[in-house]
């Protein structure tokens, strides 16, 4: 079974994205520790923002088939160090979140993800409009052979 590790800064939208894709109610609660579910491994944004936690992300990546790296489109900075995606021996997909907000700068977010060494296509998502979720659902199905009901 193909599990996915979600990484990204604090508030990037990892838990919301997971809730959307699992058809759960989208409600805000800060992630405090690694959170394992059948499909996703969600983690606190601190694990990316604080370098002494990088090893947790790297260790956890051994349990998944790919990594989804989120970048908040409204943030004028990134927490991904250059070529960070290359430390994982797994495919890393870029996801730009919060594209519905007026402050969103998709071009800048794309360049942050490129800087992080992510060459896969970047998906653009919004939990407000649902934009970008169909391609992610297809990706999930391809990975897990999940049936839509
Ligand atoms: N407008 C808008 N808000 C969003 C979107 N995605 C997430 N948010 C909001 O951003 C806030 C943080 O979202 P979370 O999903 O909790 O972020 P996280 O990456 O899990 O954060 P940590 O658990 O702290 O690492 C919440 O208030 C969400 O409602 C989006 O696409 N658009
Ligand atoms: Mg969270």
Automatic annotation (TrEMBL):
Keywords attached to this entry: Nucleotide-binding
Tell me which SUPFAM superfamilies the record gives.
P-loop containing nucleoside triphosphate hydrolases
Q: Name one Pfam family in it.
A: PduV-EutP
Any one biological process term the GO annotation gives: biogenic amine metabolic process
Q: Give the Gene3D superfamilies listed for this entry.
A: P-loop containing nucleotide triphosphate hydrolases
- GO MF annotation terms: ATP binding
Q: Where is the signal peptide?
A: none
Q: Which domain of life is it from?
A: Bacteria
Q: Tell me which family the UniProt entry assigns to this protein.
A: Belongs to the EutP/PduV family.
Which PANTHER family does the record cross-reference, listed alphabetically? PROTEIN YOEF
User: What is the name of the protein in this document?
Assistant: Propanediol utilization protein PduV
Q: Which organism is it from?
A: Desulfosporosinus metallidurans
């Amino acid at each position: 079974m193909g599990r996915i590790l979600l990484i990204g800064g604090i508030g990037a939208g990892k838990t919301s994205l997971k809730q959307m894709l699992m058809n759960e109610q989208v409600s805000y609660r800060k992630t405090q520790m690694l959170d394992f579910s059948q499909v996703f491994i969600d983690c606190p944004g601190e694990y990316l923002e604080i370098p002494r936690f990088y090893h947790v992300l790297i260790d956890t990546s051994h349990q998944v088939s790919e990594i989804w790296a989120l970048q908040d489109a409204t943030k004028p900075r990134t927490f991904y160090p250059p070529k960070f995606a290359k430390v994982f021996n797994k495919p890393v997909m870029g996801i730009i979140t919060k594209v519905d907000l007026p402050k969103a700068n998709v071009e800048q977010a794309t360049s942050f993800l490129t800087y992080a060494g992510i060459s896969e296509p970047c998906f653009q998502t919004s939990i407000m409009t649902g934009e970008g979720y169909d391609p992610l659902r297809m990706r999930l199905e391809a990975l897990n052979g999940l049936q839509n009901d």
